[in-house]
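Reopening this one. Same input as before:
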Amino acid sequence: MTPLVSVIIPVFNGAAYLAEALDSVFVQTRLPDEVVVVDDGSTDATAAVARRFGDRIRYLSQEHAGIGPARNRGLRASTGSLVAFLDHDDLWTVEKLDLQVRALEASPATGLVFGLVEEFVSPDLPAHEQARLLLREGRHPGYLVGAMLARRSAFETVGEFPAAFRAGEFVDWYLRAVEGGIPHALLPHVVLRRRLHMTNTGRGAIESRTDFARVLKKSLDRRRRGAASAPAPRGPDQADGG
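Same output, byte for byte:
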C-alpha cells in the first residue's frame, strides 16, 4: 500500500517567500497527499498568499505561539503516515519526496531519512545585506527539519516539538530521537535549498543562542540520568550460577 505523505508548513509573517516554498512542494515528482499551512499569527499578507493556493492546501491559523506549537498544530491536523516539514522561506528540490519515500519503503526499520542541503542568499536582498550573510558553499549533510521525511510512528515514540524555544526546537526533537534509538538515514542527494536572509529564525539572536545551549543541556541531563539509572556492571563473583 502506498503511504500517504503529509507536508506541514509553519509560517509567521512569511508573505514574501511562502508562495515560492509552496511552489517547490507542488512541483515534486512525487506529490504529497496533503499540505497543511499553519499561520502562526502573521500580521502581514501571509493569509492572502496562502489562500491563492485554494483547496490544494489546508490553511490553519492560530494566535502567535512560536515555531514549536505551529509545527505541532500541523502535525496533529495531518493524517499521513509519512510527515515532512518545510519552513516558509526554504525550497525543496523536485525529487525530495520521491527519493525519501522510496528510501523509507526500502527500509521498513528506518524511522527518519534526511538528505543534503545547499544554502543560497535570497536574491531579493540589496547587495549590502547580501554581503553581511555568511554562506556555506557546496553541499552539506542536512540534519534539518526541512531535509527530513519521518514516519508518524517516530513522533508517537519521541513526542512533539517543545513549545518553549524560539529556536532549536528541532535540534531538541532530533536529539531525543537519537537518544531513543530511532534509526535514521542520510541520502547522498540535495533535498533542501536553505534561504539566507536577514530575518532567518535564530540568526544572531541572543535568545536563540540561549535556546540552543538549553537544548544541549537538556540532552546532557537526560544522558546523565540514563547512565545513573543503568544497572551497575556485574563483577566476576556475581556471575550467574556462582
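So the earlier flakiness isn't reproducible anymore. For the record, The CA atoms of residues 221 and 227 lie 10 Å apart.
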